[in-house]
Amino acid sequence: MKTSPIIALDFESADKTFDFLRVFDGNVNVKVGMQLYYKEGPAIVARLKELGFDIFLDLKLHDIPNTVKSAMEVLAGFGVDLVNVHAAGNKTMMEAALEGLDKGTPSGMTRPSLIAVTQLTSTDERQVREEQLIGASLQESVLHYAKLTKDAGLDGVVCSVHEAAVITEVCGKSFFKVTPGIRLPDGGAHDQKRIATPEQARLEGSTHIVVGRAITGATDPRAAYEQIEALWKGTEA
Ligand SMILES: O=C(O)c1cc(=O)[nH]c(=O)n1[C@@H]1O[C@H](COP(=O)(O)O)[C@@H](O)[C@H]1O
């Protein structure tokens, strides 16, 4: 997947999605999440692929290993670039996900990269301790999941910008740190708890940033994308 920002296409329909994408060319990365996929199914992925977009299919699989393996076998046939699971599904489930992807990737095609969500960017310290009853800090929990993910042979994790540097130290630079929760300095957090700017993401060593509402909710989405891309790449005027 290219390193340019990944736009989260959190729209209610294909019509709304393609209307939004009119001002973008196939050179941007896009993310299809649960809302759009559940509404439109594999057809939306096929259409985006035809238009040349690199695609992160974000369905966050989390089930018993056999179910996840079979589901990944199906997703591997879609020709997407990146898919994900929840690390909380455990190492055996992550290994099964990888097996399913390997098995389902058509010959001559590249296996989609596989990453695991550590702690959602909508989660805070209190929720980790009190609701999940994890006897460790949020950062320790994220790092633990990152190590588990690497041991399982996956390509990287979803985490917040605030954990990217420590994950790089422990899991290496090429291990994906895909970071959502990206906001411009004057942007609202919405339901996110661990937010950061594109510039912070670059400085902390994120490998990819996922951006939804800061672009999709902007008055001029193309201008917002360009501003975010420049801050992310460090090429801003
Ligand atoms: O896996 C993800 O993409 C994801 C993981 C996570 O921890 N937090 C998170 O926000 N996301 C996704 O990233 C996008 C963030 O959207 P905005 O908050 O609008 O930028 C949404 O589509 C989320 O589903």
What do these coordinates show?
Homodimer. This protein has one domain: Aldolase class I (TIM Barrel, Alpha-Beta Barrel), CATH 3.20.20. The model has no long low-confidence stretch (mean pLDDT 97). It has an eight-stranded parallel β-barrel, surrounded by six helices. Helix 9 links the parallel strand 7 and strand 8. The protein is of the alpha/beta class. It contains eleven helices and eight strands. The structure holds orotidine-5'-monophosphate (OMP).
> According to CATH, what is the topology?
TIM Barrel
The CATH superfamily is identified as Aldolase class I
Q: Structural class, from secondary structure content? A: alpha/beta
CATH class: Alpha Beta
Radius of gyration from the CA trace? 17 Å
Helix and strand element order: EHEHHEHEHEHHEHEHEHH
Beta-strand content: 15-25%
| Order of adjacent strands in the largest pleated sheet | 1-2-3-4-5-6-7-8
Quantity of strands, as a count:
8
How far the N terminus sits from the C terminus, by CA atoms, comes to 26 Å
Low-confidence stretches: none
**Structural domains: how many:** 1
User: What is the approximate shape?
Assistant: globular
How much helicity do the residues have? 40-55%
Mean pLDDT: 97
Could you say which small molecules are bound to this protein?
A: orotidine-5'-monophosphate
User: What's the main sheet like?
Assistant: 8 strands, parallel, barrel
Named at the architecture level, the CATH assignment is Alpha-Beta Barrel
